Amino acid sequence: MFEIVFLFIAGFLGGILNSVAGGGSFITFPALIFMGIPPVSANATNTFASSAGYFSGTFALRHELIEHKAELPKILLLSLLGGLAGAYLLLHTSDAVFRKAVPWLLLFATVMFIWGGDVNRWLRQMASHHKHASALGAALLSALLLGVSTYGGFFNAGLGIISLSYLALAGYTNINAMNGIKLLISSAVSVIAVVLFIWDGVIAWYAGTLVLLGTLTGGYFAAHLSRRLPQKGVRAFVIVASIATTFYFFYDVYWRPAIN
Q1: Is the pTM of this model over 0.90?
Q2: CB-CB contact of 210 with 183 (8 Å)
Q3: Radius of gyration over alpha carbons of the chain, in Å?
């Protein structure tokens, strides 16, 4: 009974955070680890549990996406290829190696969450001075999107803000369109990754379904409260949670074994 309540609440809180400020994986991924699911399986399960929110968000912003329909096939293709590559790398990484990488991945995601807005503003300013990208620039942007998607297939946390940084560098300025494309990238990355995870049998279905149900409920709940919740307060909560989670994993992986 405890497992059901714990994972549902983790998903519920993660769904609220994803809808309001992002960063839900800082709650759901550690919750899956806490329940004894091996790191690689917990990460794959977290990707599965987060995917429904990406799909519904993409559908909600479909009108913004239509305005950029000429660019979407390329974005989808690169996202699928990157997601496939990242998921393949994850499945060929041992739990021991991935466990040591988790604190660094969380640290990167935390830094991007805290300072991602500043990075995006700087990238938008830089992009505004270089609107006519050269062929080399276009190739580099494609390579960057492939890298972003590979990261997302390997480790889901922080994918949204990293995708926004890529879009700012690519010259996008409309935040609604950027959010729509960001969710499209996340959807493509997660769906191809989940297919590979299902094929490999690495998803913890029972735990993942509980988190998924909680995420959907939390997202629906947040949709009705988003205008009332103080954005700065929610963001501050995510920052504190992400720092605490990152610190704990550094302690658990690198320090606690040394003192036992």
Answers
A1: no
A2: no
A3: 18
